[in-house]
Design brief:
Radius of gyration: 23 Å
Strand order of the largest sheet: 8-16-9-10-12-11
Oligomer: single chain
Largest sheet: 6 strands, mixed
Strand content: 15-25%
Bound molecules: flavin-adenine dinucleotide
Structural class: alpha/beta
Order of helices and strands: EHEHHEEEEEEEHEEEEEEEEEEEHHHHH
């Protein structure tokens, strides 16, 4: 679909960014680069979002109680990145092992503390700390009569209590609140009568509490793979249920005596038994739901203009701008199955350029048409709406599209090739992909690229 470009909107000057994770930090940098005045609201004391590990967990281990105290991070203690560090680099700020300090974590797939250090370095080197209001939670964002945005926030003191409330008006709001905090859990027949313990991976930290237990992990994505390997060293047995598997007898996992892969759960029972669709059954002590997360914007009041329907946030033009509120409201980081930091950066450059008036958007009607066309494409492909932001095979095209809007060259080839190589390696070597790979030639290309920026 070819879209005409409407006249550039009047430039905005003062922008609120919600969240100081990777998305909020790079958004703040890009907005300021475009000459906008930026305030970043961050409810935590620290910057880094997901990458601020805490041993603390939520009062409701399934994360369903809306009144629970929210813990932002879903990291477990042993977590190492599932992408090579080169692929996690922002364009002009290499996450090179050459940047790690003496004694730092120079592994290609480093532990989570190294990622946090990278983000802290990013904030320091680009002088972002002065823009951030820490321990300030945004509670309400609503458009006022003259089209500006009222942002209500409260200060959160160290003990988690309430401090002062504030209300301010901004020309634009960029939402960067993260999408790995509101757990989604599996629907399991009979679960109300099942007597065991349940938690979501959001509240998993360390394996020791599962010593000698029979643990059932639901899911097939990165956290299910990691957590099963973490726990299997301590648990009596680990069973993994993957709903995409055919209903065949359970398979013992190569390299493990006490770990099996099952098809989907058929039912659970009051005697603690879990029955699978393959007909097998196991007496289980704990179920861990590694079943992903829902988008959640509790502070956003748009009178139903922007909704989350079957985990699709919409309508959003190119996953970023809601046509009715464009360009003054934008979302960074919605798509999944991506190289997140790179995508955040490209989306942020686009948003910043549009908000400053340098880059034009299509008309509202054209943007809505584009969203409709995207939904139709999904429907014809037989994908449910909740796959609307899954970029698995469109990521590279999307990045280049964003780059083009910003008059930047397409993303350098090694990044795409490395992302693909890492995915294939992860599949081929699920136990060791973080320490064995075949793409050294791409690392050389990345390091060559990085020499422009390392100092
Ligand atoms: P977050 O990091 O969640 O930051 C959002 C920020 O917004 C937080 O600081 C939060 O406190 C703040 N906030 C939220 N609501 C409010 C409010 N109302 N008011 C004020 N502040 C608010 N990505 C990779 O690239 N490589 C990996 O290996 C990788 N592994 C991962 C492993 C796990 C277990 C998870 C959960 C994610 C992983 N990711 C990985 C994805 C990761 O989430 C992204 O890389 C990225 O860090 C997300 O950044 P974000 O800024 O969008 O969100």
């Amino acid at each position: 679909m070819v879209l005409s470009l409407a006249a550039a909107p009047p430039a905005v000057s003062r922008v609120a960014v919600i969240g100081a994770g990777a998305a909020g930090l790079v958004a703040a940098r890009e907005l300021r680069r475009e000459g906008l005045r930026v305030v970043v609201f961050e409810r935590d004391a620290a910057i880094g979002g997901t990458w601020v590990y805490t041993p603390a967990t939520e009062s409701d281990p399934l994360g369903l109680d809306p009144g629970r105290d929210i813990v932002q991070s879903s990291l477990y203690e042993s977590l190492r990145t599932n992408l090579p560090r080169e692929c996690m680099s922002f364009l002009d700020f290499p996450f090179s092992s050459r940047r790690a300090p003496d004694g730092g974590d120079t592994r290609r797939f480093p532990g989570h503390r190294e990622v946090l250090r990278y983000l802290q370095d990013f904030a320091r080197d680009f002088d972002l700390y002065g823009l951030i209001r820490s321990r300030r939670e945004v509670e309400r964002v609503e458009r006022d009569h003259d089209g500006r945005w009222q942002v209500d926030s409260r200060s959160v003191d160290e003990a988690g209590g309430d401090g002062g409330d504030e209300s301010e008006v901004f020309d634009g709001v960029v939402v960067c609140n993260g999408h790995f905090t509101e757990p989604r859990i599996a629907e399991i027949p009979g679960i109300d009568a099942w007597p065991g313990k349940q938690l979501h991976s959001h509240n998993y930290r360390v394996p020791e509490p599962f010593t000698d237990q029979v643990v059932l992990i639901i899911g097939s994505a990165a956290s299910a793979v990691d957590i099963s390997r973490d726990i299997v060293r301590y648990a009596k047995e680990v069973h993994i249920s993957n709903r995409s598997l055919p209903d065949e007898p359970p398979r013992k996992q190569p390299g493990h005596d006490n770990m099996w892969l099952h098809s989907m759960i058929a039912s659970t029972h009051s005697d603690g038994t879990v029955v699978f669709r393959d007909g097998s059954s196991v007496q289980v002590d704990v179920i861990i739901h590694c079943t992903g997360y829902n988008y959640h914007f509790p502070f956003l009041k748009t009178n139903g203009i922007i909704t989350v329907d079957d985990n699709c946030v919409g309508p959003l033009y190119k996953h970023v701008f809601p046509p009715s509120h464009a360009p003054s409201l934008a979302f960074i980081g919605i798509p999944w199955k991506v190289a997140p930091f790179l995508m955040f950066e490209l989306q942020s450059k686009w948003v910043a350029g549009v908000l400053s008036g340098r880059i034009a958007l299509p008309t509202k009607e054209e943007m809505l048409e584009d969203v409709k066309a995207w939904y139709s494409e999904l429907e014809s492909a037989g994908w449910p709406k909740r796959y609307a932001h899954n970029m698995s095979n469109k990521q590279f095209e999307y990045h280049d599209w964003l780059a083009k809007q910003c008059e930047l060259p397409p993303v350098v080839e090694w990044r795409n090739l490395m992302y693909e190589a890492a995915g294939k390696n992860r599949e081929a070597r699920p136990e060791s992909y973080r320490d064995e790979w075949d793409d050294d030639h791409l690392i050389s290309q990345a390091e060559e690229d990085f020499t422009k920026f390392l100092y």
